[in-house]
Design goal:
By secondary structure, this protein is α/β, with parallel strands linked by helices.
Length: about 220
Protein backbone atom coordinates (compact mmCIF):
# COMPACT_ATOMS: atom_id res chain seq x y z
CA UNK A 1 0.00 0.00 0.00
CA UNK A 2 1.39 3.41 -0.91
CA UNK A 3 2.84 5.57 1.86
CA UNK A 4 1.08 8.85 2.46
CA UNK A 5 2.43 12.15 3.82
CA UNK A 6 -0.54 14.49 3.55
CA UNK A 7 -2.24 15.76 6.68
CA UNK A 8 -5.83 14.63 7.28
CA UNK A 9 -8.93 16.75 6.75
CA UNK A 10 -11.40 14.39 8.40
CA UNK A 11 -10.79 12.85 11.81
CA UNK A 12 -12.96 10.38 13.75
CA UNK A 13 -12.51 10.11 17.52
CA UNK A 14 -12.70 6.42 18.45
CA UNK A 15 -14.39 6.79 21.81
CA UNK A 16 -17.86 6.33 23.22
CA UNK A 17 -16.98 8.69 26.08
CA UNK A 18 -18.74 11.96 25.24
CA UNK A 19 -16.47 13.88 27.63
CA UNK A 20 -13.35 12.71 25.83
CA UNK A 21 -14.84 13.44 22.42
CA UNK A 22 -15.83 16.93 23.57
CA UNK A 23 -12.40 17.72 25.02
CA UNK A 24 -10.60 16.52 21.90
CA UNK A 25 -13.01 18.30 19.54
CA UNK A 26 -12.47 21.57 21.42
CA UNK A 27 -8.69 21.27 21.39
CA UNK A 28 -8.59 20.31 17.69
CA UNK A 29 -10.87 23.19 16.68
CA UNK A 30 -7.78 25.34 16.03
CA UNK A 31 -6.79 23.20 13.01
CA UNK A 32 -8.10 24.94 9.87
CA UNK A 33 -10.33 22.76 7.72
CA UNK A 34 -10.21 19.72 10.02
CA UNK A 35 -13.63 18.08 10.52
CA UNK A 36 -13.76 16.23 13.86
CA UNK A 37 -16.45 13.58 14.39
CA UNK A 38 -17.28 11.19 17.18
CA UNK A 39 -17.51 7.54 16.11
CA UNK A 40 -21.19 7.35 17.04
CA UNK A 41 -21.97 10.07 14.52
CA UNK A 42 -21.11 7.52 11.82
CA UNK A 43 -23.13 4.55 13.02
CA UNK A 44 -23.09 1.89 15.69
CA UNK A 45 -19.40 1.08 16.21
CA UNK A 46 -18.17 -2.30 17.36
CA UNK A 47 -16.80 -2.83 20.84
CA UNK A 48 -13.01 -3.11 20.69
CA UNK A 49 -11.41 -5.33 23.31
CA UNK A 50 -8.70 -3.47 25.19
CA UNK A 51 -6.47 -6.48 25.79
CA UNK A 52 -3.05 -4.78 25.76
CA UNK A 53 -1.05 -4.16 28.93
CA UNK A 54 -0.05 -0.60 28.03
CA UNK A 55 -1.88 2.62 27.21
CA UNK A 56 -0.07 2.73 23.87
CA UNK A 57 -1.13 -0.79 23.02
CA UNK A 58 -4.78 -0.22 23.85
CA UNK A 59 -4.92 3.10 22.00
CA UNK A 60 -3.53 1.36 18.91
CA UNK A 61 -6.03 -1.49 19.17
CA UNK A 62 -8.95 0.93 19.36
CA UNK A 63 -7.72 3.10 16.49
CA UNK A 64 -7.09 0.13 14.20
CA UNK A 65 -10.36 -1.54 15.14
CA UNK A 66 -12.49 1.51 14.39
CA UNK A 67 -10.51 2.21 11.22
CA UNK A 68 -11.33 -1.31 9.98
CA UNK A 69 -15.02 -0.79 10.80
CA UNK A 70 -15.07 2.52 8.91
CA UNK A 71 -13.25 0.94 5.96
CA UNK A 72 -16.00 -1.68 5.70
CA UNK A 73 -18.57 1.12 5.70
CA UNK A 74 -16.90 2.84 2.75
CA UNK A 75 -15.23 5.71 4.60
CA UNK A 76 -12.50 7.45 2.59
CA UNK A 77 -9.08 5.90 3.09
CA UNK A 78 -7.39 9.20 4.01
CA UNK A 79 -9.77 9.79 6.91
CA UNK A 80 -7.91 9.21 10.16
CA UNK A 81 -9.06 7.63 13.40
CA UNK A 82 -7.86 9.06 16.68
CA UNK A 83 -8.08 6.81 19.74
CA UNK A 84 -7.32 7.83 23.29
CA UNK A 85 -6.29 5.47 26.05
CA UNK A 86 -5.80 7.13 29.36
CA UNK A 87 -6.01 6.50 33.05
CA UNK A 88 -4.59 7.17 36.47
CA UNK A 89 -1.71 5.32 38.11
CA UNK A 90 -1.49 5.52 41.90
CA UNK A 91 1.85 4.92 43.57
CA UNK A 92 0.29 3.31 46.67
CA UNK A 93 -1.59 0.87 44.43
CA UNK A 94 1.59 -0.24 42.65
CA UNK A 95 0.65 1.82 39.62
CA UNK A 96 -2.96 0.71 39.53
CA UNK A 97 -5.55 1.01 38.24
CA UNK A 98 -3.52 2.08 35.19
CA UNK A 99 -4.89 0.64 31.96
CA UNK A 100 -7.89 -0.66 33.91
CA UNK A 101 -8.89 2.79 35.15
CA UNK A 102 -12.27 2.74 33.38
CA UNK A 103 -12.95 -0.77 34.69
CA UNK A 104 -11.42 -0.51 38.16
CA UNK A 105 -14.68 -1.38 39.93
CA UNK A 106 -15.67 -3.93 37.27
CA UNK A 107 -16.73 -4.07 33.64
CA UNK A 108 -19.05 -1.18 32.72
CA UNK A 109 -18.29 0.53 36.05
CA UNK A 110 -19.46 4.11 36.52
CA UNK A 111 -17.22 7.00 37.53
CA UNK A 112 -18.79 6.90 40.98
CA UNK A 113 -18.09 3.19 41.30
CA UNK A 114 -14.48 3.61 40.27
CA UNK A 115 -13.98 6.52 42.63
CA UNK A 116 -15.49 4.54 45.51
CA UNK A 117 -13.08 1.70 44.71
CA UNK A 118 -10.14 4.12 44.74
CA UNK A 119 -11.13 5.47 48.16
CA UNK A 120 -11.65 1.95 49.54
CA UNK A 121 -8.25 0.78 48.28
CA UNK A 122 -6.43 3.75 49.82
CA UNK A 123 -8.23 3.37 53.14
CA UNK A 124 -7.52 -0.37 53.19
CA UNK A 125 -3.85 0.59 53.26
CA UNK A 126 -4.36 3.14 56.02
CA UNK A 127 -3.84 6.03 53.62
CA UNK A 128 -5.70 9.27 52.96
CA UNK A 129 -3.60 10.20 49.93
CA UNK A 130 -0.93 9.01 47.51
CA UNK A 131 1.17 10.49 44.71
CA UNK A 132 0.10 9.40 41.26
CA UNK A 133 -0.23 10.55 37.69
CA UNK A 134 -2.54 10.59 34.73
CA UNK A 135 -1.32 9.17 31.41
CA UNK A 136 -2.81 9.74 27.97
CA UNK A 137 -1.72 8.14 24.71
CA UNK A 138 -3.33 9.23 21.45
CA UNK A 139 -3.03 6.83 18.53
CA UNK A 140 -3.63 7.97 14.95
CA UNK A 141 -4.42 5.48 12.16
CA UNK A 142 -5.52 5.97 8.56
CA UNK A 143 -8.79 4.27 7.60
CA UNK A 144 -7.02 2.52 4.71
CA UNK A 145 -4.49 1.09 7.18
CA UNK A 146 -1.56 2.52 5.26
CA UNK A 147 1.78 3.26 6.93
CA UNK A 148 2.95 6.75 7.83
CA UNK A 149 5.82 7.56 5.48
CA UNK A 150 8.24 8.62 8.22
CA UNK A 151 7.38 5.73 10.56
CA UNK A 152 7.00 2.73 8.28
CA UNK A 153 4.04 1.57 10.34
CA UNK A 154 0.31 2.32 10.62
CA UNK A 155 0.11 3.72 14.17
CA UNK A 156 1.38 7.18 15.13
CA UNK A 157 1.25 8.01 18.86
CA UNK A 158 1.43 11.08 21.07
CA UNK A 159 1.76 10.89 24.87
CA UNK A 160 1.23 13.10 27.92
CA UNK A 161 1.66 12.72 31.68
CA UNK A 162 0.18 14.81 34.52
CA UNK A 163 1.39 14.36 38.09
CA UNK A 164 -1.33 14.65 40.75
CA UNK A 165 -2.08 13.47 44.28
CA UNK A 166 -4.97 11.06 44.72
CA UNK A 167 -6.92 11.62 47.95
CA UNK A 168 -9.91 10.04 49.61
CA UNK A 169 -11.35 13.56 49.90
CA UNK A 170 -13.18 14.82 46.85
CA UNK A 171 -14.10 18.27 45.64
CA UNK A 172 -15.47 19.85 42.49
CA UNK A 173 -18.11 19.02 39.93
CA UNK A 174 -16.23 19.49 36.64
CA UNK A 175 -14.26 17.04 34.57
CA UNK A 176 -14.95 13.32 34.75
CA UNK A 177 -13.46 10.06 35.94
CA UNK A 178 -11.13 10.45 38.92
CA UNK A 179 -10.91 14.25 38.62
CA UNK A 180 -12.69 15.06 41.95
CA UNK A 181 -10.06 13.00 43.81
CA UNK A 182 -7.03 14.28 41.87
CA UNK A 183 -5.44 17.16 43.74
CA UNK A 184 -2.95 19.67 42.37
CA UNK A 185 -0.14 21.56 44.15
CA UNK A 186 -2.20 24.78 44.16
CA UNK A 187 -4.87 23.18 46.39
CA UNK A 188 -7.48 22.65 43.69
CA UNK A 189 -8.73 19.36 42.32
CA UNK A 190 -8.81 18.65 38.60
CA UNK A 191 -12.61 18.77 38.88
CA UNK A 192 -12.36 22.42 39.96
CA UNK A 193 -10.37 23.59 36.95
CA UNK A 194 -12.01 25.62 34.19
CA UNK A 195 -11.88 23.73 30.90
CA UNK A 196 -9.17 26.00 29.47
CA UNK A 197 -6.93 25.50 32.52
CA UNK A 198 -7.41 21.76 32.38
CA UNK A 199 -6.52 21.65 28.69
CA UNK A 200 -3.37 23.71 29.35
CA UNK A 201 -2.09 21.33 32.06
CA UNK A 202 -3.58 17.91 31.48
CA UNK A 203 -2.14 14.70 30.13
CA UNK A 204 -4.66 14.83 27.29
CA UNK A 205 -3.76 18.45 26.58
CA UNK A 206 -0.07 17.56 26.39
CA UNK A 207 -0.70 14.64 24.02
CA UNK A 208 -3.01 16.76 21.89
CA UNK A 209 -0.43 19.53 21.61
CA UNK A 210 1.95 16.92 20.21
CA UNK A 211 -0.70 15.97 17.68
CA UNK A 212 -1.35 19.63 16.83
CA UNK A 213 2.36 20.26 16.31
CA UNK A 214 2.45 17.35 13.88
CA UNK A 215 -0.68 18.52 12.07
CA UNK A 216 0.84 22.00 11.71
CA UNK A 217 4.21 20.77 10.46
CA UNK A 218 3.15 19.67 7.01
Amino acid sequence: MAERQERPRRLVVASGNAHKVGELRAMLAVVPGLVVLGQRELGDPPSIEESAHTFEGNAGLKAEGIAAWLRERGEAGDTVVLADDSGVSVDALDGGPGVRSARFAGEHASDEGNNAKLVAELRARGLERSPGHYTCVLALVRVDGGPWADLGGPVRTFEGRWDVELRVDRRGTGGFGYDPHAWLPDGRTVAELPAADKAAQSHRGQATRGLLAWLSAG
